Amino acid sequence: MVLMICFEMQPDSETQVLTLQFEWKGVLKSVSSTMIGVSPEFEIALYTLCFYMGGEDNYVELGPYYVNIKCYRLGNKLGSAFPIAES
Question: CA 78 to CA 43: how far, in whole Å?
Fold first, then answer.
């Protein structure tokens, strides 16, 4: 599924998708991603829209960046949603 987002978001030199690795309570998360330089409202709107589109993989173009918004369902609810940087 491919989704084009046309919000009033104008990325600048500081807006980016950051891929990182971290450990939480002794468990290693080998790959994770986060968006830097966007508002929390934008992220919530983006994840909600992708959730209602119904797919697990939602390919989105955000300015110069291409990301896959992964949405995992937990029944009829959102279990998890996060960006994955695309090359």
Answer: 14
Q: What is the mean pLDDT for each group of 10 consecutive residues in the chain (87 residues)?
A: 43 62 78 78 91 91 84 90 80
Could you give the number of structural domains in the chain?
1
Number of Cβ within 10 Å of residue 1's Cβ equals 11
Q: What is the pTM of this model?
A: 0.69
Q: What region does 21 belong to: left with phi over 0, alpha with psi -120 to 50, or beta?
A: beta
Residue 76: DSSP 8-state: T
What's the domain range around 69? 2-9+17-85
